[in-house]
Amino acid sequence: MNITPVIPDGYNGPIKQLTCRICKHLFYLTMADYERLQEVSYCHECSLILLEELERNQAPRSSIPPRQVPRPASLPLKQVSAPIHRPPEPAFVSPRPAILVPQPRSIDRDKMTVAQLLEEAKMLDKTWRYKEALVSYEQALQRDPGGLAAFYGKGEMLSQLGRTREALAVYDEILHLDPTSAKACGKKGCALISLNRYHEAQAAFDYALQLDPSDSGAQSGKYFLSSYIFQNQEVEENAAIEADQTAAKETLAKPCQSAEDYYEVGNALITLKRDVEAFEAFARSIELDPLNLDVYERVGSLHFYRGNHEKSLAIYNQALQIFVDCAKLHEKRAKALVRLKRYQEALDTCDRAIQLDDMRASAYTQKGEILHQLRRSREALDAFDLAISLDPDAITPRKQKAEMLADWGKYEDALAVCDQVISLDRYDFYAYWDKAQLLARIHRDEDALAAYDQYIEQNPHSFKAYQWKLLFLSERKRYADGLATCEQCIARNPHLAQAYEWRGDMLHDVHRDEEALASYEEAHRLDPGDEGILLSKVGIFVQAKRFDEALEICEQAIRLAPTKPSAYEEKGDILTRMKRYEDALPAYRKAVQLDPQHTSAYEKTGDVLCELERFAEAVKAYDHMIRLRPDCDGAYLSKVRALEKLQHYDQALATCNKGIQLSPENRSLLSARADVLKKLLRYEEANADYDRIERIDPRSLYVLSSILGKVDLKQVAAAKARLEAAGKELSDEAITAEIDLMHEEKRAAELKAALRASPLFQPMCLLMQEKQEWTGTPKQFKELICSRFPDEFATWYRAPYKYADELKKIAPELRVEGIAVSVPPETTLITLTKTVMEKQLDRSEEATPGPTHQGT
Fold it and tell me: Which of 261, 267, 291 is nearest to 279 (CA)?
């Protein structure tokens, strides 16, 4: 075996870049050495190690018979992502993981070229080892003080490490070397945003665009400032979306071969809302390069923000199989576990992240959130304080701390922390929003409104604070104050269509519909391209049941924005309200076609299909919604109801279990599962779910349905026995019907016993043994009974009609004994008749056995 040579000092000829098969590190050879050695598989350092192992194992190997020569360890087939043809490994190499994480070179670093150092830094960057990458970039700069690539890399690593001020200094240094660099200006702007120095960032982006109007980094930065910081309503959002979509289509048109290519394709497909293809592209990128953690993070984040936390967790678990000691990965895994409410597991994962890097402020913030969920408030507070001490400018731990203090009942302390957050970033609207929400929570509504006004004074041309203030007032039905707020906004921003639209909403709420329509018209005039303003008018016409006019507005909105789903969904809603389900269905399906991520349209499609009794199709629609929003309880419940209609009870139970796993205390799902379990004749489990509902919230209306839904297991057993004895099929419906029949029989038996226990029943039977027929008035009937049975009726009713009423009540049972009774007002007189013996016997056989008397 040859030792791989190193490039000699002072060499300036052609070189060959290779990857070591053991450490996966990039290394270089002179072209002369590469051609001379023909096959080079290992870097210089690894070749030395292998040679030492070869010499140590030479004697033992010579003593092994040929048939016992150890064979190279082979990997399981499932670990091989793609066929890669490599020379056979040395027999003495011990088995190792399928994927080894490349390590920084430790031998002869002083002999590494700038190109080698830059390649090493890129490798360390994509594997999130930013501190090590920073070292490589700094070493490259020591060798080439003017190397711009190393400067940019150093700035990026400092940003990743949260050392933003140092990163800013790096970008200033680049601009000193190259004052016309639009890229450096853009990077500087991003650093300034991280430092909340927004006006300086805007100036940096403007200057970058002067140098290069096509610079995408500066364009994105300026759009971010305008849209999310300064809340500039004049920003053309649609134009930005169209530009992104155009760029995405251009990306898809390019050839795709490398892992980086597939990563870019995945992002382009996400922009175009082609999610299935996007995730396939990301998977291919990981397959080609399993070491790029940015791809894992992108996939995990997409699943996370779509509510698919199980898949988010799975991708981080996959990455951790390779990068077991990556603190950032453990932290992201903990975040997914929190959303799955697996708090103890999340806490253990977070502790592992801190163990690996005890200076990660974000890990302590995450730990504080978990401890808050576990109601370990004192420990949570300590974690938040530690995060703040590590990163004094961090906003997130302060927001989490304020929330925890509020839940702890320490409202004044929480408000003080909210004020700290506002002081750190006066343009962060949600800092004011958090404060307003907290004030509203403790019923300080006027102070909450003052918090919104505080932001409005800071940024008077942003509609966001007006919008939330209006929503706040609307929820409290303070419509006059809402109208005054609209007028205030219009006075300051007469060009804002949203202000007129909200004024229309407020006017509609106070039933001033003509003025509301006029306000909507003005909003539409100011922003004729916004179909949402047109659709705002729909509610007025629907409330007035002017459905045709409402549908016409929807058609106008569709003509205005044929590629947007909102108008189609609104049209479907109107048609559904009119019970025109067949017409509503294509409207909802068009909304889904235009936006495959439109969850509410899938849900409404399923609901309409259920109305049309097309339950199998409805299940598919609900499945789409669950894939998009796995945490949506309503989708699981709707799917269960559709599956019950199809009598697919096992599938319905599996759906309930999945929903309850995500939301263990959801009473609707627990009630639905209990219903399904009854269909499957699993009554004990059903009762257990009903009991669980009562324990969760004893005051809930669900408790009433639980009480009604519970079954008596003894009655179930009796009903089953009766059905089996009769040879009938067992089902929940049959068992329920049999229990009802048992109740009816019991009631009939009790009524029969009650009638036969009447004071009149036995005397009548005895009396009619002596007579074939008797007719008389109620008074005469009383006299007859009292004279014949004086002791029995000495203390009974005095009024004759009471005797007639009691006689009428017991008439059905007397008929069983062969005595026909007619009582006023059906007849003029009371008539008693002894029926023919055969009829009497027939009826006695049909009825429950009772006392019988022989007539004379």
Answer: 267
CA-based nearest residue to 812, from 788, 843, 786: 843
Tokens of 246: 């155009």
3-state secondary structure of 773: strand
Structure token pair of residue 620: 């598919």
Distance CA 74, CA 334 (A): 34
pTM of the model: 0.69
Residue written as token pair 């942003």: 462
User: Can you list the pairs that 218-221 forms with residues at least 24 positions away whose Cβ atoms lie under 8 Å?
Assistant: 218/182, 218/185, 218/186, 218/189, 221/186, 221/189, 221/190, 221/193
> For residue 367, what are its two tokens?
């730990």
CB 654 within 8 A of CB 683: no
Residue 58 CB partners (closer than 8 Å, separation 6+): none
3-state helix, strand and coil shares in percent for the chain, rounded to the nearest 5: 70, 5, 30
Nearest CA-CA partner of 626 in 613, 611, 612, 642: 642
CA 269, 270, 272 angle in degrees (round to 5)? 65
Looking at the chain, the number of H-run helices and the number of E-run strands are 45, 5
Tens digit of each residue's pLDDT (9 = 90 or more) over 680-707? 999 999 999 999 999 998 888 888 888 8
Q: What burial letters (b/e) apply to 595-617, b meaning 16+ CB within 10 Å?
A: beebbbbbbbbbbbbbeeebbee
- Name the phi and psi angles at 832, rounded to 5: -120, 130
Q: What is the pLDDT of residues 511-559, one digit of tens each?
A: 999 999 999 999 999 999 889 999 999 999 999 999 999 999 999 999 9
